[in-house]
Amino acid sequence: MLLLKVLSEHDCYGYQITQIFKRVSDGSIVVREPSMYPILYRLQDRGLITSYNQKGNGHMERVYYHIEDAGREELKKMSDAYQEVQRGVESIMNYTEAISDLREAR
Fold it and tell me: Which PANTHER family has this protein been placed in (predicted)?
């Protein structure tokens, strides 16, 4: 989901994605490139993203990843599911606090 979110903003190469995760999350989400590439390859196999080569600074060619319409649709589904789970967790946490308050009132 996070890879698709970053790619929904702009095309990126692998190392760039890891740096965005680290910077935007204030260092709480650190993904090493070797563990990220298998996920990118699976997203490509599913037709959610594509890749293309482009020269970066200097002579080095980089592989950039691009989200496709199917990837945007999948991101929407994943985001909706995540928000539903997040609401459920918050409800349970609030319920736990409410039970503690009831016990203390006895």
Answer: PADR-FAMILY TRANSCRIPTIONAL REGULATOR, TRANSCRIPTIONAL REGULATOR RV3488
